[in-house]
Amino acid sequence: MSALTEMTDILLRHAPGDGMHATRIAGLQIMRSASPTVSVPTVYTPMLCLVAQGRKQAMLGAAAYLYHPQMYLVASVDLPIVGSVIEASAAQPYLCFCLDLDTAVLSDLAVSHPELVEPQRDAAQAGLLLNHSTPPLQDAAVRLARLLDQPQEIAALAPLVLREVLYRLMADPANAVVRQMAIADSGSTRFPKPLSGCASITHSASASSRLPICRR
């Protein structure tokens, strides 16, 4: 059985109907659609979208990003997107493995494996990236999804497999956006800015309370 076939079977079991389904693994959701959808404006948060079946298009301004089982999508920052499922049916619904990009894990990988994040080798990239899916990434993602069938193992094994998924993303030469996320977060973690007094704290709390809550 191929990795994509196994992924499809797992996602079908854990997403019984259309829509976005939370799972027992923190940060992992499953998107399912049994038919093409109209274009819907939304906000993509930092995440990996790995399609097991079907096709979806994301529009960022005038740029179109088409992702499917051979091409995954990575968002590295919050982005206003207009998205639509363009290939799906009742017999073969659109299925997507949606994994939040944990910046704490990325920054730890950057510190533990500095060879992955040499700044001089990466030019700045847009916050949305399409890339070819690879067997090592698919294998790690399937092993993470497989834990949904073994919930008693999630607490012990999911953090390890999640770390491997993010390592595979960082190690891919085309994924500069992921490495840039890791560098930015590891830098802020190691060199935190000092607080400048109660006025600053009050201002920050007030500002954060006005931020809109965005969902995918």
TrEMBL record:
<dbReference type="InterPro" id="IPR009594">
    <property type="entry name" value="Tscrpt_reg_HTH_AraC_N"/>
</dbReference>
<feature type="domain" description="Transcription regulator HTH AraC N-terminal">
    <location>
        <begin position="25"/>
        <end position="175"/>
    </location>
</feature>
<dbReference type="GO" id="GO:0006355">
    <property type="term" value="P:regulation of DNA-templated transcription"/>
</dbReference>
<dbReference type="Pfam" id="PF06719">
    <property type="entry name" value="AraC_N"/>
</dbReference>
<protein>
    <submittedName>
        <fullName>Transcriptional regulator</fullName>
    </submittedName>
</protein>
